[in-house]
Each structure stands twice: as structure tokens, then as C-alpha cells.
């Protein structure tokens, strides 16, 4: 699974960090243009492709795409 975050959509709510069962995300020190702390994709190799992060992100900032 390829995971991307549209940084400028992110509101820093942390839902993706909270709900990912595999702890793929971590809070980073990086701020987007609106001043929100965005998550980093710390452990993409652990992703189980459950889709919860995409489902729970209220800002539609997470883009999941299947890799072959
Ligand atoms: S698809 Fe599931 S396991 Fe993968 S990053 Fe999102 S919540 Fe975590
Ligand atoms: S759930 Fe979406 S808006 Fe919230 S921190 Fe994660 S990427 Fe940002």
C-alpha cells in the first residue's frame, strides 16, 4: 500500500495516529501552511491495508493506493 498525506488538507487532529491498529503514523514536528502539526508516515511497511486511516480522516487528507 502506498500512503500519502495531502499536508495542506490536514488539520492535525491525530485521528490517523489514534486509529491505525499498526501504529504506522506518528506526530511529526512539521507544520503545514495553516500551522497544524501533521503526522509522519513512520512505519509504512507495517500497514495492513485496513483502510481505517482513510475512513476516519475528517479532511480527506489521506490517499491510499494499492501497489501491485
Ligand atoms: S490502512 Fe490501516 S494499517 Fe494502514 S496506515 Fe491506514 S489505518 Fe494503518
Ligand atoms: S486524520 Fe487526517 S486531518 Fe487528522 S491528523 Fe491524520 S491526516 Fe491530518
Overview of the molecule:
The model has no long low-confidence stretch (mean pLDDT 97). The strands form 2 sheets. The protein has a two-stranded antiparallel sheet. Strands 2-3 form a two-stranded antiparallel ribbon. It has a single domain (2-65), classed as Alpha-Beta Plaits (2-Layer Sandwich), CATH 3.30.70. The protein is 15% helix and 29% strand. It is of the alpha+beta class. It starts with a strand and ends with a strand. It is built from 2 helices and 4 strands. One iron/sulfur cluster binds at residues 3, 20-22, 24, 47-53, 64.
Which labels suit this protein?
single chain, 68 residues, alpha+beta, Alpha-Beta Plaits, two-stranded antiparallel sheet, two-stranded antiparallel ribbon, 2 helices, globular, binds iron/sulfur cluster
Show the helix and strand layout:
Layout: E1 2-5, H1 15-19, E2 25-31, E3 37-41, H2 52-56, E4 62-65
Antiparallel strand pairs: 1-4, 2-3
Bound molecules: iron/sulfur cluster (2 copies).
> From the helix content, strand content and strand pairing, which structural class follows?
alpha+beta
Question: Approximately how much beta-strand content do the residues carry?
Answer: 25-35%
Topology order in helix (H) and strand (E) letters: EHEEHE
The CATH topology corresponds to: Alpha-Beta Plaits
Distinct ligand kinds: iron/sulfur cluster
Shape: globular
Overall tally of domains? 1
DSSP helix count? 2
Major sheet attributes: 2 strands, antiparallel
Q: What average pLDDT do the residues reach?
A: 97
Give the beta-strand count: 4
Helix content: 10-25%
Identify the CATH architecture: 2-Layer Sandwich
Query: How far is the N terminus from the C terminus?
Result: 8 Å
Biggest β-sheet: strands ordered side by side in the sheet: 1-4
- CATH class bucket: Alpha Beta
Q: Compute the CA-based radius of gyration.
A: 11 Å
> Which stretches of 5+ consecutive residues score pLDDT under 50?
none
